[in-house]
Each structure stands twice: as structure tokens, then as C-alpha cells.
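Protein modeling request. Please complete all fields; requests missing the sequence field cannot be processed.
Requester role: graduate student
Desired output: 3D structure, C-alpha cell encoding
Chains: 1
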Amino acid sequence: MADADARIDALVERIRLLEDKAAIQETLSAYGPAVDAGDADAVGALWTEDAVYDIDIRVMEGNDAITEMVRTRPHQDYITEGCGHLMDPVHIRVDGDTAVATCHSLLLRRNPDSDSFRVWRVTANRFDMRRVDGTWKIARRTARVLDGSEEARALLARASR
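Delivered output (161 residues):
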């Protein structure tokens, strides 16, 4: 009986991990459509209240600052000119009520003289996630352009550890 209980407990734990990873993936994959639609409230709902978005060109501290970024320039210019925020499949490590997700992201921008798009940024990303009231949210996003720098490569390298 104890052996059966142990197997059931292990199965429950595996299912919980899969559910957590799926929920984290849903949170992260919602970012691109929300930010490209200019839905600041939907973007804000993905982040904790004390979130930090540390991108190589600026640091936004707090949910309000991240939400406001969607409403202001230059982001609104990107949207009206045509853009797409894309993420590749995310590598996720869960540890209780926290997790780390690592991936690449691309920002595509429409060429104003044609119907084509260009890759404007390719970025290494680390998302520190936290479960808040049963929902996975982004507590910190660190993003570095993949320009050959050690810092950007180090963000990606930590995924395999």
C-alpha cells in the first residue's frame, strides 16, 4: 500500500509540475499579443505589483511603469507602424512558488517602404516568475540584446544549469 501511495504522490507531483509549466507558458505567450495590440491593462495583468523590467536600454520598476510603457512613445509608434513581439519556446524551471523561464525574443518591425518586416532586436531573456494568489506572474524580466556581449550569452547559459 505504501508503494502505491508513493507512486500516486509522484504522479500528482509530476502533474502539478506540468500544470505549472503550462500556466507559465500561457502567461509569457500572452505578452506579445497584448503588447502588440496596445492592451496596457492586459500587459500589466501579467506582472506582479513590484515587478522589474530590466531591458538593456532602460529599467522599469513597478507594475504601473510597465503598464504605462505600453501607452506611451515609442511603443505606440511601433504599433502604428507595424510590429510583432515574438518569443521562441521557453525553457522553464519551477521551484515551488517561483520559477525561472529563459528564451529568445524578437521584435519585428514593418518596413515603411514595403510590406516586408525586419528583425529589429534579438534578445536573450530571463523571466523570474512568482505564483501570486494561484496565478503565475512575471516578477522580473531581464532582457539583453544579443550583440555578442558576455552578459547576453550568460542569460541564456543559465537555462541549462
